[in-house]
Amino acid sequence: MIIKKEINKKQLINSFLNHFKKFNPILKEAFQKFILFCGFVFVGR
C-alpha cells in the first residue's frame, strides 16, 4: 500500500514537472532540486 502510494506520488511529481518543462526550464530544475532535497529530508527521518 505504501509502495503504491510512493509510485503515485512520483507520477504526480513527474506530471507536475512536465508542466514546468513548458513553463520555465530554470524553474523546473530548481523545483527538481527542491523535491530531491525534500526526499532526502524525509528519508533521513
How would you describe what is shown here?
There is one protein chain. The chain is mainly alpha-helical and 45 residues long. It has one domain (2-44). The protein has two helices and no strands. The chain has helices at residues 2-23, 25-44. It starts with a helix and ends with a helix.
Helix segment count?
2
Largest beta-sheet characterization: none
Order of helices and strands: HH
Question: What is the percent of helical residues?
Answer: over 70%
Number of strands: 0
* End-to-end C-alpha gap: 20 Å
**Shape call:** flat
* Mean residue pLDDT: 77
Which strand-content bin applies to the residues?
under 5%
Instruction: Identify low-pLDDT runs.
Output: none
The helix/strand class is mainly alpha
The tally of domains stands at: 1
Radius of gyration computed on alpha carbons: 12 Å
Structural key phrases:
mainly alpha, 45 residues, 0% strand
Strand and helix layout:
Elements: H1 2-23, H2 25-44
Helix pairs in contact: 1-2
Give me a quick take on this structure.
By secondary structure, the protein is mainly α.
